[in-house]
Amino acid sequence: MQKISQTQSILQKLSPQQIQFIKLLQVPTAELRARVEEELEMNLVLEEGGDDYDETESTDTAEAEDDFGDNESDDDDFGDSDRTGDSDVDVGDYLYDEELSGYKMQGDGPSADEDDRDMPLAMQSSLTDALMDQLGFLALDDRDYTIGMQLIGSIDSEGYIRRDLRGIVNDLAFTQNIEMEEEELEQVLALIQGFEPAGIGARSLQECLELQLKRKDQHNPDVHNALRIISLCFEEFTKKHFTKIEKKPDIVEEDLKCAVDIIIRLNPKPGENTSDYARNHYITPDFILRNSFSGKLELSLNSRNAPDLRISKSYAEMLDSYDKGSKKDKKLKQAVVFLKQKLDAAKWFIDAIKQRQQTLLRTMNAIVEYQYDYFQEGDESRLRPMILKDIANQIGMDISTVSRVANSKSVQTDFGIYPLKYFFSESISTDTGEDVSSKEVKFILKEIIDGESKRKPFSDDKLEKLLNDKGYNIARRTVAKYREQMNIPVARLRKEL
């Protein structure tokens, strides 16, 4: 029998404003502009340029920031809950004061007389466009041209056709009404595999390497041996079982070495990293850290983190007119209530942008202070063990807030651009009882592997013993984990002739 009962419980829930702030905090600098433009489209009261935003409602933003970071489930004060009510509107809360500074503060970014320049992007054709251009040079009839288009559309970003040809045949039958056999499809595919870059349109790594080798001088005995190795001993080659390959007729150790040198220079992903077809990617750092001549570290936010936003003067004047005129017109009052909602949202967004700045700076300042020795010289061995909790405790914020900043932001230093999460690492104990960063251990591990004999690479057991001899208390499974994190293969795959 079902019963209806009432229960009382306390739940922690994020307000809509807090959820929006969390999302805004996670946005990297490169995407912040798009987020601001989205808000400008949605809110007619918000606009760019000038310094007319009234900060009288935002004087407590810095104090409220701690509450945001410390407990993200607490209630916030951004915007009144009675936004849609019929109570009288306090127009004075929304009028601007020209004598007050805007959100954009001194030192936040370029001055008013500086040009707002966008970074130019190089225009380059995509791989698909280049292949379609080459397809157009072939004297194909409409049927074969359509088949070629279908095949090019099936090539992935690495340059492979990973779909089964039978599936492509079915697609042509259903979408283009072209009935055909796989043999006919393979004939058109062979034409595409003759396009640039070499190896394009392959269905496997083995076929990709074969296609590239077939374009080389076949009278060269080393090329001939390389093609034989890929065609007949591909599995042994990928596992570096060179002794098994040497048992094949007419392949001696010296010939094998020359053939392998040719193979390792081939491109396993012809669709990527080619100067003609690759897209340009830019990293926009969120912070800029400079080491001055005096040895002092100077941290600043990227100026793109300080969009120049304000409350629209025309709408503020509209509210001013309402305040001075008759307030009995019901339609006018409804319009003012609507404007109040938009003004609340605009003021909250401006405050949230400012709070985002402050949170980013507090977090990064704490990281710089914690890793001060590293930022002085960029010596990886001087990185201290640091976890999210260390920074959260230092700045008095929640771990989740620090995590959101660290996972999506980067800093430009005198020795490169690094994601913030790079500076977080576990600790490893030494024989002296001192805790060192796992980054330091990885650095030493890489030095050992770089200095090993490639004819007889060190196993993980041997690497464990060498690290223990250097004073690092580390287990073999941890060595394997660090090696995998650095994308270093096992000893067998590091072996060279």
How would you characterize the overall build of this protein?
It is a single chain. This protein has 497 residues and is an alpha+beta fold. Among the domains are: 127-263, no CATH class; 378-408 and 420-494, Arc Repressor Mutant, subunit A, CATH 1.10.10.60. The protein contains 21 helices and 8 strands. The protein has helices at residues 16-26, 29-42, 61-70, 127-136, 142-153, 165-175, 182-192, 205-214, 221-232, 234-238, 242-245, 253-263, 313-324, 330-370, 372-377, 388-395, 399-408, 438-450, 460-469, 476-485, 491-494, and strands at residues 46-48, 287-291, 297-301, 309-311, 410-413, 416-419, 427-429, 435-437. Helix 3 (61-70) packs across helix 14, helix 4 runs antiparallel to helix 5 (142-153) and helix 14 packs across helix 16. It is extended, with a radius of gyration of 32 Å.
